[in-house]
Fold these 4 entries.
Entry 1:
Amino acid sequence: MKNKKTNYPALIIRTIQKKYSYFLMGTIFLIALYFILASAISKIKILTEKKITPTLNITKNTTTPMQKTYTVKEGDYLWKIAEEIYGSGFNAYDIANANNIQNPNLINPGQNLILPTITPKSPTRGEIFTLYSQKRTIAENKYIVKEGDYLWKIALQAYGDGYAWVKIASFNKLTNPNLIHPGNILILP
């Protein structure tokens, strides 16, 4: 038997030639992975050095001389404030966002709110226009609240327009429009 020496470098070169495309793709993949990881690590270092935490939709809670403010009064809620200021209760979200209010139902008398400079959304303030709709089922100007009722449903039945709930709440001086109870009598303006 002959002692045959294996030429490993030649064997590796022949294998690379046969599998060249796989070798090339693997090399490109490893280089790309290296650059992606290096980029991510450098961004993390920059954020930690500057002590910046990535956030979304955070507005600074500082006032400038040009910003308007509003002091919350007893019985105020964001929808009502937005309606008074912008003519649209839908802007209540904008007020909550500008003041970093996590729970819009929790505002306190005496609290100062920043009023952002924004475009008013669809008007919710003004006269209720009675819509001729098949959904209108209440004709009287008084309504006795039943189990399962809520202002949107009552407004839809009375005016054919669910958005009229705001007018009902305002006219009846409801401090919390989400709290109506069976047996309550509401005046429908």
Entry 2:
Amino acid sequence: MTTAAGETTRKQSAIGAGEFIALMAAMTSLAALSTDAMLPALSTIGLDLHSPDANANQLIVTFLFFGMAVGQFVFGPLSDSTGRKPSIYLGYAVFGAGSLLTIFAGSFNVMLAGRLLQGFGIAGPRGVTMALVRDRFSGREMARVMSFVMMVFIIAPIIAPSIGQLIFIAAGWRAIFVFLLIMAAVTCIWFALRQNETLPPERRMPFSFSRILRAFQEVLRNRITLGYTLSAGLISGAFLGYLNSSQQIFQVQYGLGGRFPLFFAAMALSMGTASFLNSRLVMRYGMRRMAHTAAIVQSALSIPFLILTFTMQGHPPLALFTLYLAATLFCTGILFGNQNALAMEPLGHVAGVGSAVVGALSLLLGTPLGMVIGQSYNDTVLPVVTGFALLGTAAIVLMRWAERGQTKSGA
């Protein structure tokens, strides 16, 4: 039985919703900073560390996502056993070790190893924050909070390439990774000082591989969770294909050079605007309607644009391409928050391992798809547009499959 004094202490230790959203966004944004800050320096990093070719430089981005995918299988179940905070601390420690490897990397392979460790570590704060949100919220309110987190989180890719470029010009590419290490330390201290534990001891479960396997099987057998997780993976694959190729498309193909961060920021702003609008509209229209509409619009834009791009030998005018990208990424911004929230909705009783499986499966599907799109880059935008057209259409099929036989609900 909780005493009045204990209840008062608990309430005082719980931060308000506004600071909670800001903290969750700051912790998840470390992943975006780790991805986007070095994009302007990719070519130089590849040259200095003797990468095989220009497309191989994309692996500096890809390996981070592979690490995140594997890491979520560990940190989610661990958070169900030890509590949310210890698993997040461990993730920060691994990220710090990976950051040191990237700072002092003397070869391309060491850089990739450091990026893999960074990704594995960031899976702690990035993945477990979803469980933290699920611990406090559910249903449409959870989707609304996730959209606010995504809205603040999206500021990171808007400004990250510009920050990376300024650091790169002033102090070289290694200083970018020093900056990431400092940001990790700052957010870790903020989290340690201000966020209380959301998983009380009586709700924790022993860490065992058999329990993880059972929970994994439960997720796979739930049509809603599986369908939306896989569809999120397909959308992630299309997005990662764009992300992997963006530096080459804007800086090289279209010859933007130092203006690349401005165009990248404009595309990220489109996603951020979508997340903001979604946080307002999801309470009125529901997650399912928002997600399905966004997926249909994305495919309706991508398929005709793919045909048009073929007629232009894969090199449409920059203004037309950026207009298409802005609209497509707007739909992606709507999809990300709603797909993840819909996948997590049935998993409140296993939020930690649920967030692990949802996050890991979507990334394990999306990362290789994004790598294939990126490695297919051939000095045209055809691979990127093809990825959005094909994977977006397949995502619609999976989402409809997930809803088959389901009764309508308020979600």
Entry 3:
Amino acid sequence: MKAVIFATGNENKMKEVREILKDLGTQVFSLKEAGIDVEVEENGTTFEENALIKVDGIAAWCKQNGIPAFPEKSADDFVILADDSGLEVDRLNKEPGVYSARYMGYDTSYREKNASLISRLEGVEKADRTARFVCAIAAAMPGKESRVVRGTIEGYIGWEERGSNGFGYDPIFYLYENDRTTAELSPEEKNGISHRGRALELMKEILREVYAGK
């Protein structure tokens, strides 16, 4: 199996990714660890479009410049994965959606973002607070067509933040099964049911199929 570069600078996300991909038996590097410093404008209108734009842009850069942290290796020695993920709130026309990271500005804290979403749902009953986390993960594989998969998890937006295990919108995203937020789940519980976990499981199947015995 080729080594993996996951296109993120988010350490919380990297912890989840490494844990979920550990049974692939290969190394998983962040962009920083691979020495890659490139910005790709994600101007798509769907999570899938953005994930593909990002992964193809980074793959093209690596093809031209190599992998700076591993000058002895070729870009063809790596699979590059990129994701676009976010929160869709049905009552708010599926906002913040693909703009989840940019909602209210990149420099705005998630505590403020979460408070804003709760405020915008003031007076709305539980049945109408439906929401989902979405994660699209794309893979750029040397000599192969890029692939993209989607994982989702359904829930609702609560009335307050709860839990400290997650990040981002986790503290306000409640699960119907037990009325706990994804920030109240252990890392193992969350990885087993999360949108990112489900998308990565689908991607693992693709990588195993493509690189079986290699």
Entry 4:
Amino acid sequence: MTGSHVLALGHYQPAKVLDNDDLAAMVDTSDEWIRSRVGIRTRHLARADETVDEMASAAAAKALAHSGLAPSDIDLVLVATCTAIDRSPNMAARVAARLGLARPATMDLNVVCAGFTHALATADHTIRAGAATAALVIGAEKFSAATDWTDRSTCVLTGDGAGAAVVVAADRPGIGPVVWGSVPEMGGAVRIEGTPPRFAQEGQTVYRWATTHLPPIAREVCERAGLSPEDLAGVVLHQANLRIIEPVARKLGAVNAVIARDVVESGNTSAASIPLALSKLVERGEVPSGPRCCSSASAAICRTRARSSTAREGALAALAIPPRGPIRSRPAARALPTLPA
């Protein structure tokens, strides 16, 4: 085999929904304020006893069922997450046990919002090297457990959920090329730190970096994949913010692309945002298929199986970029208020 491709997708969102009016009863905000600034209407929240690996397993089970493969066919499980509390066993091992997989290699990757693209590239490289033939690649987050529900600048953004892809060996490359990269000294612009851990970010820094640096990176990925921005069928960013997604898509020149608005409307689930959105778009037949993907630590272009044979040939641009900006000191963690039932 000379490459790999995405065979199937699946997603999971918890049943509990927290809308903007619920948040307005908790902090000084309003439905109009949230929708006008970021576009979010609701967010799905996991139960207190619902774990990252439980959500990851639910999404992975759907992807596996859609693929037509047996559990014994999977020989690699990768879980991208930044909100898993337990160190060992890792989330990937727990997913493998829940799904009854035979003896796959299991690894977690913590690259926050760029997690899924890192995991997708890792699966592709592992399969190309001959160390695996079929992989489950999962993004799963329980951000509600790390959110400060008294901070209106961050609590309006986050949600919980998972998305998964089955990646298999192929006769010709369907994923790649990969552009690896980061800005290490600026990583603190988005962080989960402290005891208990709390999510915090430099919002304006993230906004400025994303709207100015994302389009050139996305264009580079398109060029390496042999595509033009006009070829893109969909644009998916991990950012739950239409003020970022729409300018990026416009500057990129993705004039024919569908913008995954529903992932915005249901909150930012970090590493889970991209596969969750891709799964929804493909499930609804809004994005077509093909055998070729291009993935990067900064951006990914991916073609997946279409639900409709009449769907236009195209690609998905999935963008997950570490922000650039100053690192500031972290405020002391505060106790979380009780969420509405």
